[in-house]
Amino acid sequence: MAVKTDVLSKAELGGESILAAWMPRIAGGLRMFAARVLPPVLFLLLLLAIWEVACSQPGASLPPPSTVITDTWELIIDPFFDKGNLDKGLFWHLAASLKRVAVGFALAAAAGIALGVLIGQSTLAFRGLDPIFQVLRTVPPLAWLPLSLAAFRHADPSAIFVITITAIWPIILNTAVGIRNIPQDYRNVARVLRLNGFEYFFKVMLPATVPFMFTGLKIGIGLSWLAIVAAEMLIGGVGIGFFIWDAWNSSLISEIILALIYVGLVGFMLDRLISFIGNRVGGYAQQ
Amino acid sequence: MSAYLSIENVGMTFKGANGPFIALRDIELQIDSGEFVALIGHSGCGKSTLLNIVAGLIRATTGGVLLQGKEVSDPGPDRAVVFQNHSLLPWLTVYDNVRLAVDKVHGKAKSSAQRDEWTRHNLALVGMDHALEKRPQEISGGMKQRVGIARALAMEPKVLLLDEPFGALDALTRATLQDTVMELHAKLKNTVIMITHDVDEAVLLSDRVVMMTNGPAATIGEILDVKLPRPRNRLALASDPEYTRCRQQILEFLYARHRAPAVQAA
User: Fold this and answer.
1) Model's pTM, two decimal places?
2) Which chain B residue lies closest to A185 (C-alpha atoms)?
3) How far is B135 from chain A (nearest CA, A)?
4) For the residues B236-248, what does the mean pLDDT come to?
5) What is the DSSP string of chain B?
6) Could you tell me if the ipTM is greater than 0.90?
7) CB of B103 within 8 Å of any CB in chain A?
8) Considering only CB atoms, which chain A residues are within 8 Å of B101?
9) Which terminus has fewer CB within 10 Å in chain B: N or C?
């Protein structure tokens, strides 16, 4: 009987009870806000306050946040200006860096997944290549730059090469681990069904490896973004790395700080973008 | 005259770190078409190895397996396996897991509409037609095993191999699945080899129970004919003298004469 009255009362919900029905949701939203959004905002304000106090002392070598904002106000409100040459808004610098990362990272992803599949599948390739990869991956990104400048003789392809060579190792190694971790059961299912190599690759190996692959891609995109800023400081031209270097040479410390904030935010978004795609493509693994 | 499925003089030796390890020796077993055979024995007696040899997933070191007079040399859908841990592909839905097998096995003989129909038919047989679009991680262990059975049946195998299919399930789920398997066997007359640890399950389901001695060098110790009429009912059997006799005989074999080695029993 109790169940029945409950059903009736729900069916009888009138206009004024709609608010009542929404109340729990609103309350849930507020609780979520308090739990997730409030803490980082509070800590950010706290850090800014400490910074403000610390750098407002006479003789401080770095500007406090209030000065950073007033110094760079024009850059903040208009990221899209273009006065020719290198005198462009931050948007254009970031876009140039992102373009290099996009090309370099795409190359790294394609080559890295292919090589990862190779050393994951073939024991011979694994034994032959893994030691070489393990050594090469410890070479710092910028150490490749002079060599690539010598090889390509142009700044842009050299920067892209540095991105690729930096991002490729985690992609190769994680893809290979993913393939080596395909459960024997899945292989047995494929054998009982007599899947051919092509079918096995697309129906079992690739989907089983996707979560590992995206772990590699995520580390890779982070490293690319680390490397591009450093590489651009050396090669010059339009790009957020050179913008920072240029600001340093002109002693515009506030501009450096603003650029760092942008670099951090863009890096964060790149990381989230790859996670998002990874969850879309290989989301079954998280459930 | 050879049997439908004939396991002849099968022996299996693994190359181990401490020299060769003899897992199985002198296995001789003839199985008729439509027969339900259970393999029972303690852990480590090589039951799974024997099943994998019949499946073609591994090759015997000596002897061989003949299915309708032809030697088994590699895995194939005519010897479909239901694996202990279901091994459904987690990125495919229930429907797609079965459909993958249907497309591969019947891709040439059936049209796309017929394959769709056949996929649904087999899932309906195991009572899983309500969850076609679910993914394996969204359904219970028993349901996963049902889908695994549907996938195997959809291949229309000559022999259905069940590798301890209900081992990981709770007792109640296990009982309903046993009933499903009995109904399917009555309806489809499949030839089945099932590995089990469970004495009641072996007697309830099979026509013959093959009892294996302990490894190393395990072999068939005894074969018991279960002369219980079908269809069988677990409630009625509980007090059936023949059922009790069969149970008793297996228990005697497993626990009196071929007790598990102390290390493994612990």
Assistant:
1) 0.79
2) B87
3) 8
4) 92
5) ---SEEEEEEEEEEEETTEEEEEEEEEEEEE-TT-EEEEE--TTSSHHHHHHHHHTSS--SEEEEEETTEE--S--GGG-EE-TT----TTS-HHHHHHHHHHHHHTTTS-HHHHHHHHHHHHHHTT-GGGTT--GGGS-HHHHHHHHHHHHHHT--SEEEEESTTTTS-HHHHHHHHHHHHHHHHHH--EEEEEES-HHHHHHH-SEEEEEPPSSSB-EEEEEE----SS--HHHHTT-HHHHHHHHHHHIIIIIISPPPHHHH-
6) no
7) no
8) 193
9) N
